[in-house]
Design a protein that fits this description.
Blueprint (H helix, E strand, L loop, with lengths): L1 E4 L4 H15 L8 E7 L4 H11 L5 E8 L5 H5 L1 E9 L7 E9 L5 H5 L9 E4 L19 E4 L7 H10 L5 E3 H4 L2 H12 L5 E8 L4 H14 L3 E5 L5 E8 L4 E4 L5 E6 L5 E4 L5 H8 L7 H9 L9 H15 L1 H18 L5 H22 L1
Parallel strand pairs: 2-3, 2-6, 3-5, 6-7, 7-8, 9-10
Antiparallel strand pairs: 1-4, 4-5, 9-11, 11-12, 12-13, 13-14
Length: 372
C-alpha cells in the first residue's frame, strides 16, 4: 500500500502510517529499529531495495532522506517536504517512508526525521554515498547509535580511511569492513589448525579497494608482523599469503566466488567465498548495535604503516644500492691505492733496516771474544 503526500509535515506522515497499518490489518508495531538512509535520487532505488531485503531479518521502519537540489534562487529560499509512505508487501516486513526535501529544509533534515523515529528503539543511519567525514558530528548521525558508511563509494578510498580513523567515534562502522568478515573467519580458522609463528603476510587485491587495506591493517595489528599490500586485477580481494615457521598458508580467490586454502602438509581445500551483495552486508551490520572494537583497532593502525605494492619496495631496495654503488668502486679504488701506497712505503726503509741488524749480528761475536 502506497500513500503519496505532497508539501506535507511530519505529523501528517505519522497519521498516514497509522492509517496504512489499519488498512492492511496490522495496527500493532512489531519493528525493532529505525533505519535512516541518507542518499541522493540516483542511488535511492538500490539502497531502498537492499534495506527492504534486510528487513526480512530485521523488521524496521526505514526512512529514506533524499536531499533534492533546487536550481532557481526562489526554490532555494522556500521549503517543501514530499513523502511516500509504503506499508505492507511493498515495504517488506516493516514500514518505509521516502522523504524528499527541497529548499532550506535540506539543511535541517534532522528536524524532519526526529518525529518519525520509533520510540524506545535503536537508530541506525546509513550513507550509501557521499558520507560526511565525521559521521558522529553530523546532525543525522548524532541521532543514531550506529553509523554505517561505505568508503568503497568514495573518490579516494584509501585517503578516506585515514579521515575515518582521525574522526572515529564508537558506533562508526564501514561496509568495506563488513565485506571481509568471511576472509577474517577463514584466516583465523586456518591459523587455529597449525602451531607455528607467522613471520610475514601479503594481501593481494584491487588497487582502489579499501577492504584490502582494512584486512591488511587487521592482520598487522593482530599478528604484529610486517604486511605487504600488492595489487592485482581483482575482482576485490584475490589472495592472502602468510609465511610461517611451518610453511606458507595461502588463501587464493581468483574468480570472486570459490577460494582455495593451502596449508603446508595438508591437501588443498575449496572454500566458498562468494562476494556478497549490499542487502547481506546491511543485514550483518544490523545484527549488532554495540561498538565494534576490532574495527576501531584495525582502522587506527594506519594505512601508512603498510608496505606498498611489490614494485615499490623493489625500487626502494635497488635505489639505495644504485645510489651508493657509484661511489663504492671509487672508494674501493681509493682504498686499494692507499693500501698499495702504504704497502710500498715501508718497502723502501726495509733495506736500511736490515743493515743495522746485520751489524749488530756481526758485533756480537767480537764482544764475546773480548769477554773471554
Amino acid at each position: 500500500m502506497n500513500i503519496d503526500l505532497t508539501n506535507t509535515t511530519a505529523s501528517k506522515i505519522n497519521k498516514a502510517l497509522i492509517e496504512g497499518r489499519r488498512a492492511i490489518g496490522t495496527p500493532a508495531v512489531g519493528m525493532v529499529l529505525t533505519l535512516v538512509i541518507v542518499t541522493d535520487e540516483e542511488n535511492a532505488y538500490d539502497a531502498l531495495k537492499a534495506a527492504s531485503d534486510a528487513s526480512r531479518e530485521h523488521p524496521s521502519r526505514t526512512l529514506v532522506v533524499i536531499k533534492r537540489v533546487s536550481r532557481s534562487p526562489r526554490d532555494r529560499t522556500s521549503s517543501r517536504l514530499d513523502a511516500e509512505v509504503r506499508v505492507g508487501a511493498d515495504a517488506g516486513t516493516g514500514e518505509t517512508v521516502v522523504l524528499r526535501l527541497y529548499g532550506e529544509i535540506v539543511n535541517h533534515a534532522q528536524s524532519v526525521v526526529l518525529p518519525l523515529l520509533l520510540p524506545d528503539a535503536p537508530v541506525v543511519v546509513w550513507w550509501p554515498v557521499n558520507a560526511p567525514l565525521d559521521p558522529a558530528n553530523d546532525p543525522l548521525g548524532a541521532l543514531a547509535q550506529r553509523r554505517v558508511t561505505d568508503t568503497y563509494a568514495a573518490e579516494q578510498p584509501v585517503r578516506e580511511l585515514s579521515a575515518r580513523a582521525a574522526a572515529y567515534t564508537p558506533g562508526d562502522t564501514d561496509l568495506s569492513w563488513t565485506r571481509i568478515t568471511p576472509w577474517r573467519s577463514m584466516l583465523a580458522a586456518a591459523l587455529d589448525q597449525v602451531t607455528c609463528e607467522v613471520t610475514s603476510v601479503e594481501v593481494e587485491g584491487e588497487e582502489f579497494n579499501p577492504s584490502c587495506e582494512l584486512l591488511a591493517m587487521w592482520l598487522a595489528d593482530r599478528l604484529d608482523v610486517p604486511v605487504r599490500r600488492s595489487v592485482s586485477s581483482g575482482p576485490g580481494l584475490t589472495a592472502v599469503r602468510m609465511g610461517t615457521s611451518c610453511g606458507p598458508i595461502v588463501l587464493d580467490r581468483a574468480d570472486g566466488a570459490l577460494a582455495t586454502l593451502s596449508i603446508e602438509g595438508q591437501p588443498d581445500r575449496a572454500v566458498a567465498l562468494q562476494r556478497r551483495d549490499t542487502a547481506e552486508l546491511i543485514a550483518e551490520e544490523l545484527r549488532r548495535l554495540d561498538p565494534d572494537d576490532t574495527y576501531a583497532s584495525a582502522l587506527k593502525y594506519g594505512v601508512d604503516r603498510l608496505a606498498g605494492p611489490a614494485s615499490a619496495p623493489a625500487e626502494g631496495e635497488d635505489g639505495p644500492s644504485a645510489a651508493n654503488g657509484a661511489p663504492e668502486p671509487a672508494a674501493a679504488g681509493n682504498g686499494s691505492a692507499e693500501s698499495d701506497a702504504t704497502a710500498e712505503a715501508p718497502a723502501e726503509p726495509e733495506a736500511p733496516a736490515k743493515g743495522p741488524a746485520k751489524k749488530t749480528a756481526g758485533k756480537a761475536p767480537a764482544k764475546k771474544a773480548a769477554a773471554k
